[in-house]
Amino acid sequence: MSYFRTIRNIELSTIKYIEDSINSAWSGINIVKAFFQAYDKAVPVIAIRLLETMSTREEIGSTDLDNTHSIVIDIFAKSDGQRLDLVDYLLGILKGCWTLYNISHTSGDAESLDYTDSGHKVRMIRIVNNTKIEPGANVEIHDKFRHVINLQVAVQI
Known about the structure:
- The chain is an alpha+beta fold.
- The protein is 25% helix and 45% strand.
- It is globular, with a radius of gyration of 17 Å.
């Protein structure tokens, strides 16, 4: 078994939470892990990725770090109304906490992931950005009704 580190677990746990939530309430929404993958799928698409980790010392003299992570969610919708509905839905499910999994896979099998509840939660701290992307003229369908949400999250122990 190959186990992932904390930051990768935060990203994949967030993707799993959003994907499971979307699949239980919507149909036909493609979820991808990388921005560039969105253009390989038919709209609507939601791309989710952990963009950066910010670290500060927990206290003077300590080597422990207090980490927060920036999760970026790009929405590629079919219409402006769908864009607004997806934004509202996502913010509704992300305002609380979700399970942080310890994720592993069998060596040589990167497709099948095993999820084990770590006993911790990922908690949204704040919404850093929640913006409609205004396209220029003559854009392709993926860029016509775009939106970006940037969340700051941390592990809640």
